[in-house]
Every structure is written in structure tokens, then in C-alpha cells.
Specification:
Blueprint: H1 2-15, H2 27-54, H3 56-64, H4 73-85, E1 99-100, H5 106-135, H6 141-146, H7 150-179, E2 190-191, H8 192-209, H9 212-221, H10 227-232, H11 234-248, H12 253-287
Parallel strand pairs: 1-2
Amino acid sequence: MSEDTNREEQSTKKSGRKKSKRGEMSFLEHLEELRWHIIRSVLAISGFAVLAFINKRIIFDVILFSPKTPEFWTNRMFVKLSEYLGVESLKINQNELQLISYNMAGQFSTHIWTSIIAGFILASPFVIYEFWKFIKPALYEKEQKYASGAVFFTSVLFITGILFGYYLIVPLSIDFLGSYNVSPDVPNQIQINSYISSVTSIVIASGVVFLLPVFAYFLSKVGILTPAFMKHYRRHAYVLMFLLGAIITPPDVFSQVMVSLPLVFLYEVGIFISWRVVKKREKEMNEA
């Protein structure tokens, strides 16, 4: 029995796995610890949601409703760019979109759900930190070392994606969808829930898309994703990205490229990260 124990200890040392209490926990104990991570995350989201609910004017008038006005920064920059290039179609959101609410409790329920979404976005760095704390003990010591900045970079990428979606994709989408009609006889009367759900879904989706390098890293670590796979489907990904840019932007090449290029760049970064991970794993296997 002692020889088997010694073998296990030597195998553990060779593999470089950090000994921790987590490794000796049962399945139910893992679930219990996960529950507390979720509880702390929910409390953080709830706290920021209450803060957002109290600051109604900032959340709605300053943040959510600004992209549909001509005074919004992106809309003003497009007007200047239009005048500089002499392309009239670049001017966006010059006629402010009017919103309506036809449900008795529509605005109140919208206020609550919007506050929850704002709370999630504001608490996202803490939520990412809690998720990282849960999975960190399951990693090897070297993996923990290389992924030491995971919380910081993941948070930065997610927030950057949200800002990209808010300042670029949202104004372009509002201009296209808000002014599109199948017939002059059908005026657009945008319901407030529809407007806010479109804005929030765009910014959150942009934040998730900007996490592509993080997904590439972890999926490559577990062997699900390879650089060869990403290179093979590179053209398909490019087509989807430029198609997305063509759908949400005005009918000019400049706007389409401006939306699509950051996505293309992130895809190429994901390929590079996947290549580094695979190379490092092959090197370790050869040394072993």
C-alpha cells in the first residue's frame, strides 16, 4: 500500500499539479463550492442592479437613449466623415427615433429588467473573478502561472467588446432598423422594450464575441480547437463577419469594413493563441 502511495505522490509531482483541498473534494462538495461562487456573483449583480435602478436618468437618458440622437458622439463623427468624404449616406440617426410604450406596466418592467442587465455588465469583472476562482485549483501549476492574468484580460476584452458594440454597432443598427420600412404607408413606431432589448443584446453579444481569444485559449488547452481547424474555416468566418457588417451598416464599403475589421483581427488573434497552445503542448510531450 505504501509503494502505491509513493507512486501516486511521485506522479503528482511529475505532472506539476498543485495539491489543494479542491482535489480531495467530493462531487457534492464541488457543487457546494460552486453554489457559493454563484451566490456571491448574484449578490454583486443585485447590488449593481439596485444602483442602476436608482440612477434611472443616467441609465436611460444618458446611456441607452443617446445613440438614437443626432448629438451622440458616433453620429456626430459620421456626419463629419460624411462631409469630409462627400458621401451623404454616411450620415446616421439625424432624425431622432421616437419610442412608445403601450402597456400599463411596460415602462416599470422595462426599468427593472434594464437595471438587472446593467448590474450584470457592471459586475462582470467580479463574476469573471468568481468563475476563475472556481476553476483555478483544477489547473496545473504551470497553467495557473500562464493564466495568471486571465481575469484582467477577460474583463478588458469583455468591456472593450461592449464599448465597441455601444459606440459603433448600436448607432449603425438603430439607423438601419429604425428607418427601414417595407412601404411608406407603414410608419415605424418603436416599442421601448424592442429598442432596449436590441441595444442590450447587441452590446452583450459584442462583449462575448470579443472573448474569442479567451475561448480559443481554453478550447485549445482541452484539445477541442486547433489552429488547423480555424484556418480551414477562415474564409467562412470572414464571409459571416462581412455579412454582419453589411447588414447593420449603411450601404457603403467604409462602414462595413470598419465593423468587420475588428472581428477579423480577433479571429486572427485566436488562431495565433491556438497555435501557441498547441505548440507548447507538443513541446511538453516531446520533453516528457
